Amino acid sequence: MPSPGMTRRTTRVPPAADPRLAVSLGPLRLRNPVMLASGTCGYGEEFAEFTPPGVLGAIVVKTVTRQPRDGNRPPRVCETASGMLNSIGLENGGIDYFCETLLPALRTYPTIRIVNIAGATTDDYVALAKRLDGEKGVDAIELNISCPNVAHGLDFATSPPQTTELVRAVRRATERPILVKLSPNVTDIVAVAKAALEGGADVLSLINTLQGMAIDWRRRAPRLGGITGGLSGPAIKPVALRMVWQVARAFPKAPIVGIGGIASADDALEFLVAGATAVQVGTASFLDPAAGRKVVEGLTKVVDDEKWESIESVRGTLKSSEAGPPA
After folding, report:
1. Cis ω for the linkage preceding 160 (within 30 of 0)
2. Contact indicator for 64, 95 with CB cutoff of 8 Å
3. What is the DSSP letter of 181?
4. First CA to last CA across the chain, in angstroms?
5. pLDDT tens across 123-142, in order?
6. Is 147 part of the annotated catalytic residue set?
7. Please, which residues have CB within 8 angstroms of residue 319's CB and are 6 or more apart in sequence?
8. What residues contact residue 203 under an 8 Å CB cut-off, 6+ apart?
9. Helix, strand, coil % over all residues of the chain, rounded to 5
10. Strand 77-80 and strand 58-64: pairing?
């Protein structure tokens, strides 16, 4: 699908430990399909001892906003059956703090570096994209249009026309490749994916967290200070797989990043078979900060065992991909 706006800026290819794991994600070339998800790895340094950035295909740093944000009131995290709820509220120091204090270290990481941004208005996203377009060490931008934990966080992601308008405005503002992170809190994920592609998205990231809630019945109170939060972890993997499959079937040439409950090589391969090109490891890193590295190691073993020449060969190979739901 044609994308209006600026020509994408290409990225250098990091040296690959195993070229069989390398994948092309739109204009990005990753040494392997494993990324760390925004909001779960800080700015990379926090996990470097356990999952060095150089072993990953990419890292997606914690969301950056135009102005500093204090985030939501605590408690901000709550464990649930097979997952967790978070209501962080996009706490961060703002774009100036990020560029001046955090970006210098990020520039040294020998991997693809993706900066996740969010705003309340189109102008916010455009201003952030323009600022990052002039900074070294930013290989791509991920638009967080799907955070369920802040006011107006889902406005763009639940309206296809607004999605197109926003992505098109950001596309005109930057040469960086654009990933758009989609929300599962919609009735038709394909319609929103189509809108993002029409606006000029290079890559689709799906899914963000599902809106959820936990209650302490003894206190008659919610367990989160923000009352509701975003559900992540193994509990949402079936939903994420279904949405990746739907979008990949509708747009087989669109580069897709699968997100949701990925903790092992088997999890990652399920997403690749469903049609994703790459995956992001998120909540699993809270349980094991080496989870990202272990997924890469697991994929290497599978490629060896299966004698694949390239892991890209398994993308979209679900045998029932042409079948529809039962009548």
Report:
1. no
2. yes
3. E
4. 31
5. 999 999 999 998 999 999 99
6. yes
7. none
8. 25, 26, 28, 140, 177, 178, 179, 180, 254, 255, 256, 257
9. 35, 20, 45
10. unpaired
H/E stretch holding 295 reads helix 291-306
DSSP 158: T
Sign of CA dihedral 85, 150, 278, 324: positive
**Which letter, b or e, does each residue of 183-217 get, where b requires 16 or more Cβ atoms within 10 Å of its Cβ?**
bbbbeebeebbbbbbbbbbbbbbbbbbbbbbbeee
- Bridge partners (DSSP) of residue 215 are 222
For residue 58, give the 3-state DSSP assignment: strand
Give me the domains of the chain, ranges plus CATH numbers: 19-71+90-211+233-314 (3.20.20.70)
SS3 239: helix
Query: Residues 41, 78, 99, 147: which is the catalytic one?
Result: 147
The amino acid occupying position 216 is D
The rounded distance, in Å, linking the Cα atoms of 299 and 294 is 9
Instruction: Report residue 180: phi and psi, to 5°.
Output: -120, 120
Q: Which tokens in the block code for residue 182?
A: 């989609």
State both tokens at 195: 């809108």
pLDDT tens across 185-226, in order? 999 999 999 999 999 999 999 999 999 999 999 999 999 999
- Annotate 17-38 with b (16+ C-beta within 10 A) or e (fewer): eeebbbbebbbbbbbbbbbbbb
Question: Phi, psi (5° rounding) for residue 206?
Answer: -155, 130
Rounded distance between C-alpha atoms, residue 250 and residue 252, angstroms: 6
On whether the CB atoms of residues 15 and 258 are closer than 8 A, the answer is no
**In 3D, which of 228, 242, 289, 250 has the Cα closest to residue 47?**
289
Yes or no: say if 178 and 128 are a contact pair by the CB < 8 Å rule: no
pTM above 0.90, yes or no: yes
Instruction: Report which residue type is found at 105.
Output: A
Tokens found for residue 129: 């994209």
DSSP secondary-structure letter at 211?
E
Q: Is the pLDDT at 242 greater than 60, yes or no?
A: yes
Give the CA-trace dihedral at 151, 157, 163, 167, to 10 degrees: 80
| Whether 257 contacts 179, CB under 8 Å | yes
